[in-house]
Amino acid sequence: MSTVTRSTALITGASSGIGAAYAERLAARGHDLILVARRGDRLEKLASELTGTHGIAVQTVAADLASADGLRQVADILTADASIDMLINNAGVARLGATADLDMEALDSMLAINITALTRLSRAALPGFIARNRGTIVNIGSVMAINASPITSAYGGSKAYVLLFTRGLQEELKETAVRVQAVLPAGVATEIYDGTIMPLDQIPADLVMDVDTMVDAALAGLDSGETITFPSVGDADLWTKYAAASDTLFAASQTGTPAPRYGV
Does a structural domain hold residue 255? Predict the structure, then answer.
């Protein structure tokens, strides 16, 4: 007799938008789910719909990943549940505006969710993934990771961390079967714009991607073996050139001699 190992995906920020779309798509693929978000009522509604439609098991966890207790709760689940073989680090917050004008508590919360929670949850999942030599981590970043804007300095900086952290993990894990993907969307029609200085209705509609379409593209990228996925970029070679230029610049920095232009 053979033993079938259930596959479970844990998705953060799962109550709406990108997280909810991942939940629906992964449920359709037969994954059991652990859905994490602050809004427990939305999670329960989504869980009921997915269970009824797809016949999979869904656990909901109402947790605030900006809090130490909430983060610890989810990290403990990742550590203890050996059925989890996919982590979708989707929870994210956008605080837009000049850095000097940002509310300090709002800034701290954004960094806690966009950077600390993503890192801690990846760290919690990795030992089990490595020991079982299987598993996938998907880190949802943003195209703002490669763009400097006067109203996205802190947000873009947090997403640049996501990109570099993901690339570093890929190097750490290259001798294993554990996969890590960074997804860097541009504008997507989600609630992340609510309450910001750039509401969704002020962005030209042709620059904003439907959330289901974005997730379908990201999953297609994952299925095809992409490690860095820009859902709206048609020329994949642009990333290859960007990464190569970054590697060339880094290599040029590896000398103990000041550049001649400094005259020192």
Answer: no
Residue 27 sits in a domain whose CATH number is 3.40.50.720
**E strands, 133-225, in order:** 136-140, 179-183, 187-188, 208-209
Model pTM above 0.85? yes
pLDDT digits (tens, 9 = 90+) for 223-248: 999 999 999 999 999 999 999 999 99
Q: Which two tokens stand for residue 248?
A: 């060339």
| Catalytic residue, candidates 155, 161, 193, 262 | 155
Q: Kindly report the number of other CB atoms within 10 A of residue 131's CB atom.
A: 10
Residue 252, domain member (yes or no): no
Among candidate residues 185, 112, 171, the one with its CA nearest the CA of residue 142 = 185
**Contact by Cβ (8 Å): 194, 171:** no
Q: What is the CA radius of gyration of the chain?
A: 19
Asked whether residue 243 is domain-assigned, the answer is no
- Which of 207, 227, 75 minimizes the C-alpha distance to 141? 227
> How far is CA 3 from its chain centroid?
32
Side-chain-side CA neighbours of 84 within 13 Å: the count stands at 28
Burial class (CB in 10 A: 0-12, 13-18, 19+), 76: exposed
242 is catalytic: no
Which spans in 3-93 are helix H?
17-28, 40-54, 68-80
Does the pLDDT at position 73 exceed 70? Answer: yes
Confidence of residue 1 (pLDDT cuts 50, 70, 90): very low
For residue 167, the enclosing domain spans: 8-235
Number of folded domains that form the chain:
1
Model pLDDT, residue 204: 72
Q: Is residue 166, in this structure, part of any structural domain at all?
A: yes
